[in-house]
Structures are given as structure tokens and as C-alpha cells.
Design a protein that fits this description.
Helix content is 44%, strand content 15%. The protein is built from 12 helices and 12 strands. The strands form 3 sheets. It has a 7-stranded mixed sheet with strand order 1-9-8-7-4-2-3, with helices on both faces. It is α/β, with parallel strands linked by helices. The chain has 2 domains: 224 residues, 3-Layer(aba) Sandwich (Aspartate Aminotransferase, domain 2), CATH 3.40.640.10; 94 residues, Aspartate Aminotransferase, domain 1.
């Protein structure tokens, strides 16, 4: 990312662009088109709605980012069915099956794979099987899970699966990347009032013509993603990367328990990439976050309705095991000082 800037129409950039597309296709196990949007992941979220849904969709909501998907859909005039379990609980296949039976006219299901606001991961395989049993489109917000856990797009039949550069791949923000199925592209071809910037067919046309993207690319972020994907290959592939996430998360959770703290979501559904921690009785989540910042550690405040009750510890990007040890020691000192 520190090298001389390239033109997004240069031979050097185009070589990197198509190589990055191929690397990401391999990483998420898909033959679908991969688009590299000059936007955050929310751009891809809106694109899935505007290109593929005409009237009605179902949105699975476990927290604030599921709510965002719903807000995006409603702002585009879509009639919405909301499936909202109690906060901290995952969506179950049984609940989803029941909601689809009650609403057979929904065209698509939107799912937040990993809900960072509550530190919860949904059972993607079971939910995808249920969606496809009902013959619906499946949109997966994988912003904080792609790169942190395995996602087999083609096996699961995901129609739009998107993420952002700044999460598990550890690249600065600004790149929204995702896969788009043939069915989603066919629906886009017939869609009206879908705008231009996020029109899947516009992006597909330029990509197939060898132009890369229809707009200026976020070249530094794409270079960073390219480097990250090559690093993963070099160090042992996806299994090595996912095992690294598991080991770091295990270390964080065991350390949290030794301090006397607990995680917020239902046991067995904890996120592999971000831990939502119940604040101690002596402090709210906000002061824990601020005190840790004063000691040189950037954690995250609680989000939405859990803002005061929790704080969060991310496990994304470049983190050494020694960093986790020092963070836990500092956290223990912060809490015990109250």
C-alpha cells in the first residue's frame, strides 16, 4: 500500500484487480462474479436490495447491523418481514422456516452472519439450507466474518455475500467486496429504479470487458487485500488463518473468565472475531473502554442498547499473542482498581 499510486486503467492495476478477484473467489469458494466496490460493505448491502428485490423481503435481526439491513430495505420502499429473536440469541432454522411458511411471498432473506454489536454468530449452513428449501434468494452480510471463519458461497447457495476490507483481512476501510450469483445478476438485468453506481450489471459489464471497475478503484485497499490473500496462501491457506482466529479467540475468552467476566451472547453462539463482554458490576462498559484507551489499548464500546452494559474486544487483523496477554493484564488492573 506504500508504493507509487497507479491509474485504475493501467496495466499494472488491471493485473492486480483480476488477480485479487480470483484470489477472493478461491477464498470464499465461489465461481460467482466478485465485484470490488469503492465503498464500505453497506454499499453492497444496499446494492443487494436495489438490484434483486421488487416488493418484499425477510430480514433476520440479531442486533444493530441486522437493523441496518432492515432500514436500508425500508428506505428503498421494500415491504419487510422482521425475524427478531431475543437479544443475544441466534436465528434458528425452525424460526426461519416458520417465518417463510407464513410469508411465502418474500423474495429474499437477509442475514447478518456475524452480528458484531452483540458478539454473536448465526448458524449459516442451517439457515442457508432453510432459505434454499423455500426457493428464496439469500443475502449474507459477512462484513465481520469473511476471513475469520469459513464461508462456502457456492455450497450454501448464497446469492450476494459481501464484506469490507477493514475487518478480518486487516486492510484500511473503503473497499466493499462481494460475490453475486447468476440468479442475482439476471434479476438485476430486469430491475428498474436501481440507480447506476451499484448496478450489478454495470459492474459485470466493465469487469468482463477487462476494464476492472466502472469507477475509480480504491487502489491502495485492493493492493492491501491482494497482499493479505497472498500472505494467507503463503502461510498455510485458509485453515491456517481460521485456526489463528480460533486460537486468539480462545486466549481472549479464557483470559476474560480468569478476570471474572463473561460474554453476552448465548453460549455456543459467540462470534469468532469479536467478543461482547458483560461489564463488571463496578463499572459500566464506557469507562472500561476509556480506561483501556488511556493505557494504550483500543477495544470497542458497547453498541446500541448494550452500550452501557458491555464492551467489546475485537480479534481482527494483525494481533500478536503477546498483545493479547498484555491487554488482558491491563484489563484486569483496570477492573480491580475500581
Amino acid at each position: 500500500m506504500g508504493r507509487q499510486m497507479l491509474s485504475h486503467r493501467s496495466k499494472e492495476y488491471l493485473t492486480m484487480h483480476y488477480e485479487t478477484v480470483r484470489l477472493l473467489q478461491d477464498f470464499i469458494s465461489t465461481k460467482n462474479e466478485i465485484f470490488l466496490f469503492s465503498s464500505t460493505g453497506t454499499g453492497f448491502m444496499e446494492a443487494s436490495v436495489r438490484n434483486c428485490v421488487r416488493k418484499k423481503m425477510l430480514c433476520c435481526i440479531n442486533g444493530s447491523f441486522g437493523e441496518r439491513f432492515a432500514e436500508v430495505a425500508e428506505s428503498n420502499g421494500i415491504t419487510l418481514v422482521k425475524l427478531t429473536p431475543p437479544l443475544g440469541q441466534p436465528i434458528s432454522a425452525q424460526e426461519l422456516d416458520g417465518a417463510l411458511r407464513e410469508n411465502p411471498d418474500v423474495e429474499a432473506v437477509a442475514l447478518t452472519h456475524n452480528e458484531t454489536s452483540v458478539g454473536l454468530i448465526n448458524p449459516l449452513k442451517e439457515l442457508a439450507t432453510t432459505v434454499k428449501k423455500h426457493g428464496k434468494l439469500l443475502f449474507v452480510d459477512a462484513v465481520s466474518s469473511m476471513g475469520g471463519t469459513d464461508i462456502d458461497v457456492d455450497e450454501l447457495g448464497i446469492d450476494v455475500c459481501f464484506s469490507s476490507s477493514q475487518k478480518c483481512f486487516g486492510v484500511p476501510p473503503g473497499l466493499g467486496m462481494g460475490s453475486v450469483s447468476e440468479q442475482a445478476l439476471n434479476l438485476s438485468a430486469k430491475a428498474t429504479n436501481k440507480g447506476w453506481y451499484f448496478d450489478f450489471k454495470v459492474w459485470e459489464e466493465d469487469q468482463k470487458k477487462g476494464h476492472g471497475t466502472p469507477v475509480t478503484s480504491v487502489i491502495p485497499q485492493i493492493a492491501g487485500l491482494n497482499t493479505a490473500l497472498k500472505m494467507i496462501q503463503r502461510k498455510g491457506g485458509k485453515k491456517w488463518y481460521f485456526d489463528l482466529y480460533k486460537e486468539r479467540n480462545r486466549k481472549i475468552r479464557e483470559g476474560i473468565e480468569k478476570i471474572g467476566l463473561s460474554t453476552f451472547p448465548q453460549k455456543g453462539s459467540e462470534s469468532p472475531t469479536v467478543n461482547c463482554i458483560n461489564a463488571p458490576k463496578t463499572m459500566e462498559g464506557g469507562p472500561v473502554y476509556e480506561r483501556m484507551r488511556q493505557n494504550g489499548f483500543e477495544l470497542a464500546e458497547g453498541y446500541g442498547p448494550l452500550k452501557k452494559k458491555t464492551f467489546r474486544i475485537g480479534n481482527m487483523g494483525y494481533i500478536e499473542m503477546a498483545d493479547i496477554d498484555l491487554m488482558l493484564k491491563t484489563l484486569s488492573n483496570v477492573i480491580s482498581s475500581q
